[in-house]
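Help needed: design a sequence for this.
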């Protein structure tokens, strides 16, 4: 499958890895929108949040647990934002489920 994030998981494309376990990978976004901007993805190829099966919901809670742990390690005490873009109008450009974590500056609201 021609998926850039699957290639990152398989080490066919390099990435700035922050954390990895059996289920997820966390790496820096190559086009950071804030001083801290990383992506967390399931190792299983799931297209987007609407395609998550009931059996895979456990991965989503694990993702949020990992985000909490990394936020603690990076001392993101001033706040952060978790973003999931889904589908064309949602601004999703990579069709492998991912959550953005942005921090390190005051973030505007609403997004565009
Ligand atoms: P989205 O627009 O929500 O689908 O986000 C895709 C994100 O993946 C963008 O923020 C890109 O900068 C990022 N991205 C694309 N290719 C890579 C890559 N090879 N390594 C790290 N981040 C990437
Ligand atoms: Zn993939």
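Sure. Designed sequence:
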């Amino acid at each position: 499958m021609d998926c850039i994030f699957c290639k990152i998981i398989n080490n066919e494309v390099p990435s700035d890895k922050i954390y990895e376990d059996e289920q997820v990978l966390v790496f820096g976004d190559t086009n950071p929108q804030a001083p801290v901007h990383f992506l967390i993805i399931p190792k299983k190829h799931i297209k987007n949040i609407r395609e998550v099966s009931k059996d895979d919901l456990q991965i989503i809670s694990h993702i949020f647990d990992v985000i909490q742990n990394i936020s603690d390690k990076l001392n993101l005490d001033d706040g952060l934002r978790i973003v999931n873009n889904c589908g064309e109008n949602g601004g999703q450009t990579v069709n492998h489920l991912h959550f953005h974590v942005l921090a390190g500056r005051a973030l505007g609201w609403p997004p565009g």
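The CA atoms of residues 13 and 65 lie 26 Å apart.
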